[in-house]
Amino acid sequence: MPDSDSVYPITCSLLSAAHHTSPIIHHCLHTPCPLLPHVSAAYDPSMQVQLSHPARTVEVKGPKKVKELLRELNLVVEAHLVIKGDDLVTEDEMLYDGDQIEIRPVISGG
Length: 110
Hints:
It contains six helices and seven strands. It has helices spanning 4-7, 9-14, 18-21, 23-30, 37-42, 66-72, and strands spanning 47-51, 56-60, 64-65, 80-84, 87-89, 94-95, 100-105.
């Protein structure tokens, strides 16, 4: 196994003084620490997709383009708006695991 300074050179060089002041920080910088059970259970790498009609939330694995997501959900690309975070995105925009996505139908009327 390589020494920890070669595994984490940037972290160690940026925080090299930390190990002199805190043995806990030094240990965590140099030793892989597993996620606690409650943290790892809460971590979900999929996209959270909120749909309006009918109202529901689904999880989808990324990465994929908006148009691929809509096809996977059996939705017509031209009939839906896709919002990533607070931004409206185009059909060629890439979506990734961890993204918060909302899909709204386009409504017109007179």
